[in-house]
Amino acid sequence: MQVFSGIKVLDVTHVLAGPFATVQLAMQGAEVIKIEAPGDPDQSRFAGADPALNAEGLGTAFQTQGAGKRCLSLDLKTAAGRAILLQLAAGADVFVENFRPGALAALGLGAADLRAHNPRLIHCAISAFGAEGPRGPETGYDLVVQAASGLMAMNGTPKTSPLRLGVPAVDYATGMMAAYAIAAALFRRERTGEGAEIDLAMADVAPLLMASGVTGYLNGGAEPRATGHALPGVAQGLFRAKDGPVAIAANNLAQQQRLFAAFGRPDLVRATREEAARHRDADRAELEAMVAARSIAEIARILRAARVPVSPVRSVAEALADPQRAARGSFARPETGGPVLPLTGFLLDGAPARHAFAPRPAGADTAAILGELGYSAEEIARLSEAGAI
What we know:
alpha/beta, three-stranded antiparallel beta sheet
């Protein structure tokens, strides 16, 4: 049995962080119902690399976090739509939303309203800056939070900073943190029977991506700056081989000793961290010359044999073609077929999670879900005519 089998999740989220959270639960067996406004579904449905899929409302940006979810069209601005949501919430385990703080509460659909119908409900609200504080009412996306959090100022080189990370890392990290918070709340509920209210801010997650730098500043005043590839160690960073760049991460003294020995320069092996630090600039210049005289393949062969972390700088296409990805089962089609999608970053009992079924069109399961709630075909037709679904 999957971890979250029997858990029902109402997903009233859009774009990335919220949907990425709920797809983690779906991959572990939760029944996730994605709720979207009729005629105005999740904007990510129309974004991605394939124009034809975008036109269908199944763009790759949506597919990334849309698989394994049933799709319900529901207009929460109508009384009938709100009544249906309250009915669903009464039988749900988890409710996830990422609207501006207070937006759903203004419709009578806030955490207090939903938990009045279901005290065991886990309510997770995701926002840019959180429900509390002077910036709570503001909206924001990954780009804004990267700028506001200091993350952009740490990225790049002294000449190119501030620089946006090449991926929406705060969105993805927030989604994973939300899934973790929900799992923790569900675990507590098993012990106590109590539901929970989770207030999760992207701006609170962003500092966790630079935790050591933030900790250094808070406990000594050393503000982290953009350094590019200039890491402090003798053999840490990006080096230029004969045929391109190569990343070397001999982070500890033992690895540095093995590296210089493998390159035939035992005279550069230092006995202590202090000695290595004193000779850093000269030893690094020697290492740069040794790397420059060799090909990437030769460097990788030598350093892997010496158990020193090393990698060529690959394109995304090259990285995905690595046999390690297939061995780990990092990507797969849903069990019923569909697009190849990323899975969880871990194996559970030796196996990765799987998507149960492919991403669904907006509203594809509306009639079925309402039928399960006891609505007749005539009632469903009337709701459709009224624009509530």
